Amino acid sequence: MPKGFFLTFEGLDGSGKSTQSRLLVGWLEASGEHVRVTRQPGGTRIGDRIRSLLLDSKTESPAPMAELGLMFADRAQALAEIILPALNAGSIVVCDRFTDSTEAYQGGGRQLGSEIVLRLHETMCGGLMPDLTVLLLPDFAASLVRARRRNERMATDGTDEGRFEREGQDFYRRVFDKYREIAAREPVRVVVIDGDGSLEEVHRRIVSVVIECLRAFRAE
């Protein structure tokens, strides 16, 4: 049984999850915690190659099942190379996206359904679930605007990770609704931070949740 604490951040692109993840990691490290940070897709040499294939807007649309398979190939490598070794060493692992993203984007957005995603998770990830998932769900329309604006900035910098941002509003509405479904199904693990609070307000709410969950985890 892993000794460490597994924490994931989830949400639509443009929700602020990557920024809040960095803020939390800084707070944890300042508190004396040993933290291992990773992201999905990516985080390993193999995963970074998969990431570039999946997110590059020049990638011709793969079949939804092929996209799903690549997501889990990346995840299996991350588990073997980063996540499980860090958890077994007693670290706090903070991961930007995990299987909830796949259920939301491929299960919901691509309309593959939850069943196949959860079945693949059981097979390829040994059923490992985060101890805590912070799900950021600010205003839907504002998130899409921020995501597309960020993609334009990245393209200017020479980074192209905008394939998903080309999807229409119906796709993202299905993703958003699937995230809500996941949160309703797993209310203990998934903590929803909704609304459009300031950066500092959201950070404080997340820190409060993490303190409480870590205290309970370590008391077991």
Short description:
This protein has 220 residues and is α/β, with parallel strands linked by helices.
SSE arrangement:
Blueprint: E1 5-11, H1 17-30, E2 35-39, H2 45-55, H3 64-88, E3 92-96, H4 99-109, H5 114-125, E4 132-137, H6 140-156, H7 169-185, E5 190-194, H8 199-219
Parallel strand pairs: 1-3, 1-4, 2-3, 4-5
Helix pairs in contact: 1-8, 2-3, 3-5, 4-5, 4-7
Features:
5-stranded parallel sheet, 5 strands, alpha/beta, 8 helices, 220 residues, globular
> Quick check: average pLDDT?
91
Question: Which regions have little confidence, pLDDT < 50, spanning 5+ residues?
Answer: none
Radius of gyration, taken over Cα atoms and rounded to an integer in Å: 17 Å
Structural class: alpha/beta
The total of helices stands at: 8
Global geometry: globular
Number of strands: 5
- Biggest sheet architecture: 5 strands, parallel
Q: How helix-rich are the residues, as a percent range?
A: 55-70%
Distance between the termini: 13 Å
N to C succession of SSEs? EHEHHEHHEHHEH
Strand content: 5-15%
Strand order of the largest sheet: 2-3-1-4-5
Folded structure, characterized:
- 58% of the residues lie in helices and 13% in strands.
- The mean pLDDT is 91.
- Helix 1 (17-30) packs across helix 8, helix 3 crosses helix 5 (114-125) and helix 4 (99-109) crosses helix 7.
- The protein is built from eight helices and five strands.
- A five-stranded parallel beta sheet has the order 2-3-1-4-5, with helices on both faces.
- It has 220 residues and is of the alpha/beta class.
